[in-house]
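ugh ok so i messed up the first submission bc i forgot one of the chains. this is the corrected input, ALL of the components this time, i swear. 489 residues overall. if the numbers dont match what u have on ur side tell me asap before i send this to the collaborators (the ones from the other lab, u know who)
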Amino acid sequence: MGTLTIRSLNDSVKQALRERAAARGVSMEEEARSVLANGVSGDASRSFQDETLYAAIRRSVEPHGGFDVDLPERGPARRPPQFAACLSGKRILLIIGGGIAAYKALDLIRRLRERGAAVRVVMTAAAQEFVTTLSAGALSADHVFTDLFDRNDEHDVGHIRLSREADLVVVAPATADLMAKLANGHASDLASTVLIATDKPVLMAPAMNPKMWSHPATRRNRATLQKDGIAFVGPAKGEMAESNEAGEGRMAEPLEIVAAIEALLDVGPKPLAGRKIIVTSGPTHEPIDPVRYIANRSSGKQGHAIAAALARLGADVRLVSGPVGIADPAEVTTLHVETANEMKDAVEQLLPADAAVFVAAVADWRSETSAGEKIKKVAGEGPPALQMIENPDILAGVGHHKKRPSLVVGFAAETQDLVRNAEAKLRKKGADFIVANDVSHEGGVMGGDRNRVRIVSKAGVDEWPEMSKDEVATRLAALIAERLKTITV
Ligand SMILES: Cc1cc2nc3c(=O)[nH]c(=O)nc-3n(C[C@H](O)[C@H](O)[C@H](O)COP(=O)(O)O)c2cc1C
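and heres the new structure output, hopefully the right one now
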């Protein structure tokens, strides 16, 4: 009987075996023997990838004297017990684009399979310059699709089948090129054709040089794709793998992509099930007359994202929204109000609740009177004098209310002395914690997509790095779930 020595295998076979063995939690030698056993036994269920690897191992071993096989049958993949199979039964079509971050897509396959998902992989021609189909096939335990005009796959219009058989299509890394193709409706290779043919949700994890990411063309394409309903995760800020440059463009880490997938497929844990949570969002409009009002620059993006994140964790969310130009979040009950007084009334009617998160930028003052008719500009009379009065303080009102929720979270939008002002607000308003964000003009927080916040509580100040408003929302929702867990009602 010949011996099978891993050292004698060529490098690409070794790499494929290493990844495959890691995915199944077995040694490389066990995995090689398993591939050979299935190959020799003529197992009809073996995949194209098994056959490729089987042939490659044979070719590597035969010059060293060949081998006999007296090997155990391939056992079921050993799943490490710490992973909940929350993606069990879900089918993910992963499109790997041609960027340096393609190596992370291999880890993503592993992470998805650990959680019970079936992963099919499409690789662009450029992606194959960075990672091999052998590795992707070994990790996904399936044939890797690369060619739109493949004679074997296309006899039954395989690209349509591929795009429809999945529950979710994930593009990681999403190159500038793939984003441009989908934003403009191109279908010039298998990846872009699948993307345009699918009727399933699509999640993109962009990765590119910061200059490419900030180019107006990429920004335009991203905005178009978002309008078309494509979901995004990342990119993050950080060092680029290929150069000394740093900036926004790093692909989200595989586990962040997994979290985004779980959120899109709504399979994540529901620690807030049975909890009622009030969220306020957006600006308020304080009328001067029927056509004029006092407002602020709040877009509602952060508050709406928090409402959506809490709903994803299973909460019964009641969103009280001022006038905003964005859509109501899915799975959330939204009440639309205009003024601070209307917001206060709506919030009070929603009590009792388990938690309340006051994100809205409520106007501090309003005009004492609102004219019934449009105030006319009269030559020689000058502008009207507005007498301003204070609006109700909704956060303080609920923070000291007899029906106070167990957890009260306020937001402090400040342009100076951020932490000191937030600490003062915490004490004065009876909040459990204050999310402080710097809304000075340079930060671009008001109306922008990113935020950098500090969580100020009696325990101290926790500074979070800059991230997207969606990511802030996800982290804050997790924090609220954690805090509510320790509060018994
Ligand atoms: C070394 C190298 C690294 C690259 N990294 C990226 C990248 O991270 N992101 C990106 O969008 N394009 C990157 N490119 C350019 C893409 O590979 C190129 O635009 C290609 O056409 C993308 O094809 P695809 O979108 O079909 O995968 C890189 C090119 C090279 C040569």
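quick check: Residues 97-101, 124, 126-127, 175-178, 207-208, 212, 242 surround flavin mononucleotide (CB under 6 Å). that seems consistent at least. Confidence is low (pLDDT under 50) at residues 40-45, 64-82.
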